[in-house]
Specification:
Number of strands: 0
Helix content: 40-55%
Number of helices: 2
Oligomer: single chain
Order of helices and strands: HH
Structural class: mainly alpha
Distance between the termini: 80 Å
Low-confidence stretches: none
Radius of gyration: 24 Å
């Protein structure tokens, strides 16, 4: 008598509700806007932080994303 292997149990995928994802979506959305500000606009007259430190840290990323800075 030949034995057949039992098929492995497939775990059920439970959907994530919109209420559970909303706080994380808002958090990451705000984080992305802050990062976009620092890469795209943190220099000159709109600077929140004085000096050239932030500009030097994001300089290459600014050019990579197409923001002019010179």
């Amino acid at each position: 008598m030949a034995r057949t292997a039992a098929a492995p149990a497939v775990p059920a995928i439970t959907p994530i509700s919109g209420k559970a994802i909303a706080p994380w979506a808002v958090f990451f959305g705000i984080l992305m806007l802050v990062l976009l500000y620092f890469v795209g606009a943190e220099q000159g007259a709109t600077a929140v932080i004085s000096g050239e430190g932030v500009h030097e840290w994001v300089h290459d990323g600014r050019h990579l994303l197409g923001f002019p800075c010179h």
